[in-house]
Design goal:
Layout (H helix, E strand, L loop, with lengths): L1 H31 L31 H6 L14 H17 L7 H26 L4 H21 L3 H25 L6 H14 L2 H25 L11 H26 L2
Helix pairs in contact: 1-3, 1-4, 3-4, 4-5, 4-9, 5-6, 5-7, 6-7, 6-8, 7-9, 8-9
């Protein structure tokens, strides 16, 4: 019974945060491009970006509002910008995380799990933004950086001690240091500055060099699986660009939930 209540809560919060991601991504983009209007994140009513009609409560119910109008504005009947996939994906990730969490959810582990849910929300927002506009906005990246630093500080003081800080620093150096080197060597042609900063953040979260290396390896594999067919089929190979942020984020989800098992099986099969 308790498990069912927790899952229901995760789905509900996932839907709400997924809806928030859609609004957050658009408002950050509107601020960056200086689109006319009030696009404050912390204040201001939501509105249709086409007719600018203020949205009522019935227009803001996650996913179901989109479903009731088939993705059209209730007032001007133009296509709305919200992505229902995002609103559905986050509760799925929340629930998957609960059932796949690699540690027993008691005591301190609940704190780590809640931090992870916040990380998931921010990472999904970054992935959506990167897929749409090939950028990783600093406001989200720096917020996640502050979150993981505070979490690692708490962890080092009350749980893991100095070893936790050392492992987090090593994880950051692997996660972001390699990208930083690639960025400077290529003068930003091979990888973007946003990916460098995100690599540092994800390395701190993963909390160790082995997990960070696993994350980079899986991100590279995922990127290759997508990029190679596109390169083969594309007539404009030199102009083909793929955002790397979503691959890093997907790899981080896999490493967080299944990384320990993957590493154990690797050691077992390799005889190390």
């Amino acid at each position: 019974m308790l498990t069912h209540m927790i899952v229901f809560g995760l789905i509900l919060f996932g839907l709400c945060f997924g809806s928030f991601i859609n609004a957050l991504v658009w408002r950050l983009h509107a601020q960056d491009k200086k689109i006319k209007g009030d696009w404050s994140i912390s204040k201001g009513r939501s509105k249709c970006i086409t007719c600018e009609h203020l949205l009522s409560i019935k227009d803001l119910v996650p996913f179901f509002s989109w479903l009731s109008t088939l993705g059209m504005c209730r007032y001007c009947h133009k296509k709305i910008d919200d992505n229902p996939v995002v609103e559905l994906l986050l509760p799925i990730l929340f629930t998957l995380s609960f059932y796949s969490w690699p540690y027993e959810l008691v005591g301190y582990e609940w704190l780590r799990f809640i931090v992870w849910l916040l990380m998931l929300t921010g990472m999904l927002a970054l992935a959506v933004y990167d897929l749409r506009w090939m950028e990783l906005p600093n406001k989200i990246v720096y917020t996640l950086f502050g979150l993981v630093v505070i979490y690692r500080f708490y962890d080092s003081v009350f749980i893991s001690g100095a070893n936790g800080i050392r492992e987090a620093v090593l994880g950051a150096l692997i996660g972001g240091g390699i990208f930083c080197l690639l960025f400077f060597v290529s003068q930003g042609n091979w990888i973007g500055g946003g990916d460098v900063k995100l690599g540092f953040v994800l390395g701190i979260w993963l909390g160790g060099p082995i997990m960070s290396m696993l994350m980079l390896f899986m991100a590279s594999i995922l990127g290759s699986i997508i990029a190679i067919p596109l390169l083969i089929s594309s007539k404009k190979k030199k102009q083909l660009r793929l955002p790397f942020g979503p691959f890093l984020i997907t790899a981080t989800v896999i490493a967080t939930l299944y990384g320990s098992d993957i590493i154990k099986k690797y050691y077992m099969f390799s005889g190390l």
